[in-house]
Amino acid sequence: MARRIQIQLIALFCFLATAASGQTNSSNILVSYSFDDAQLATGPDTFAVFARSRGTVRLNGANRLSGYRSVEIRDMAGDGDFPELQGYFAPRSKGKLFLHFGFMTATPYEEFNIALAGPQWFNLRKDGIGFWLKTREGHLCQVSDSMPKKLFLVEPFVWYVVNGIYDIDQGSYDLVIHKEGIQKPVVSLARQANASNQPGSVVDKFSFIGDTNEDKSNVTYYVDDVMVGIDESIVHLPFVAPGRKKLFIDYWNEAQRTRRSQPGPIEAVGLADFGIRQKQMEALKAAGLWELLLRLINGQAGLSDVPQDPSSDIQRLLQAVGLWGEGAKALRDQKAADALKRFDEAAARVPSAKIYAMNAVLSLAALQQWDAVDQRLSAIYADWQDDLRLPPAMATIGLARQRLDEAEQWLRGPAEQIPDEIGQDLLRRLRSGAMTPELLQQLKLRFPDNWDDYLKDVFVAEQYFLVLLWKHQIVDAERFAQRMADRYEALGIPNSRWYERMGDAAFLLGNFTMALERYEKGLKEHEQSPGILVKLSDVYFRMGDLENERLYREKIYGTIGSE
Description:
alpha+beta, globular, Jelly Rolls, 8-stranded antiparallel β-sheet, 19% strand
């Protein structure tokens, strides 16, 4: 049996939110999880994550029904265990429960199970399983009166929203399932016998899992917007794929509302931010340190709780997370020098963790060390250029820099006189966003006296544009982006980034047709840009074109993948 980790509040691993507090009476909601904001749910609930197997339960920012994140459940056949997400609520022995959740699978022919159960756990007996959905041979099935019955053939990368009314006294339920983009439900059933055909069965938990006993499943599926309550309005929540979606513009607007007087730490949105991937997850679990990692991320443990063994990669990884926590607190407390020291120490321990280096840059911005800001930003820009968190971070840096109007000076004519083709090629690569430590070193060798001026040409211009947006001078920002695109074209430099920025300005102005045109032009030069693809998906969603919204969303799956 897998090890169970009880979690009251998971600030990174599972974000709990009051997803529908504006549409339902919160006192009638037993469980409400949308996995976005670090808020307590609306009832006396807890999570249990079964996490000893090679499978995983983790946040996913690419494939979500609403908001910024869903939960990804990934099983691996033959590992002797299973990943599972369980939720708990106060036992209910009578009346009706109303269920609402969304799911999407990448692997329809791999088994997964979703169940509502009681104190007898997941067994077909009284007070055991009450409501049970599972996949079999590509079909979604309901288990009613202990018999699996096929409902429909599941499509990959399509969100389905399940609404159920579970009658505890009668031992039956009504079931309605909607498929994204289709108004008519694909399933509409009434008075179905519960899984064990037992009236009066107590229920107090739900489960999302891979397969249950055979250990043959390699499923990857996603869950979002889980709600359980005694309020019928829960099953009447609107669903227009992809649901109550927060667009990249919403992320920008929320960053504006929470801005600080000086740069603050950038938030972590996934374990990959800390350099933690499948290999590291397996090693942490094998060493019995997985729970400590979660406590470090949540701020429930500190650096002093990490075993001191500098020879171990895993120990260094945990130390880095502990240092990150201390650095984030120091930067929020306006102790930028202390924060910089912590972030640099964390980055030295785990160089592959992108969040430490970016927070170090923000600390340097708070310290007004602009040459160091530009140099370090150039070294990590390639890792961040398609990240939704970069524009607000750059705007924050720009606001701290203050003297950004100098960016306009470079538009009066070419700022560089390049004596040879090698230097010209270096600058083309720099301005196209292809920044690497190797390119930076080549730039220093070719232009030893003024190499940092070319970094400012890139960074200050982008920060100037984003500060104009931040100050709601959107038309001025759009015009500046057009001038930058024209300048890059005259210099023979790829200008897709500036067409993307023009699209951002048009999106904020509500001109979706123009935003679409700008993004598509930017995509011609950068066909696999996840940043542009997600924005195209968002534009089509805002325009009500769900077919193209899904088309670009599926392109993102193939480009971004899971964390």
